[in-house]
Amino acid sequence: MKRLVAAAVALSLGACASPYVGKPYSAPATPLTEVAVAGDILPEEVVAYEAASVGSNFGLLGALIDSGV
Questions:
Q1: Residue 52 DSSP one-character state
Q2: Helix (H) or strand (E) holding 51
Q3: Residue 69: which H helix or E strand, with range?
Q4: For residue 63, what pLDDT is reported?
Q5: Please, are residues 55 and 63 in contact by the beta-carbon 8 Å criterion?
Q6: pLDDT value, residue 52
Q7: 52: left (phi over 0), alpha (psi -120 to 50) or beta
Q8: DSSP code string of 18-46
Q9: Predicted local confidence at residue 19, as pLDDT
Q10: For residue 46, which of 12, 17, 42, 66 is within the disulfide window of CB 3.0 to 4.6 Å?
Q11: Cα distance between residue 9 and residue 14, in whole Å
């Protein structure tokens, strides 16, 4: 069991060892001429819940603002 845990830890830390390689933005050769809006039609039974408030992610100050103080 210890070897399995050690192997899992080694594999998960190995993923962090690869350096980030940024891809530079290159503008297209032809300019943008039109923009379209796509509809986001969802079934009625789809429901989304807020897992955490945005203000609580900013530490004590965010939590105070979120609570309305």
A1: S
A2: none
A3: none
A4: 74
A5: yes
A6: 67
A7: beta
A8: SPP--------SSPP-----------TT-
A9: 73
A10: 42
A11: 8
Return the structure tokens found at 63.
């939590």
Whole-angstrom CA distances from 30 to 18, 26, 35, 37 are 35, 12, 14, 20
Please tell me the distance from the alpha carbon of residue 37 to that of residue 34, in angstroms, as a whole number: 10
Q: Residue 65: what pLDDT?
A: 75
Q: How confident is the model over 3-60, as pLDDT tens digits? A: 999 888 887 776 666 677 788 878 778 887 888 887 767 677 767 777 666 666 677 7
Per-residue tokens: 31: 């300019």
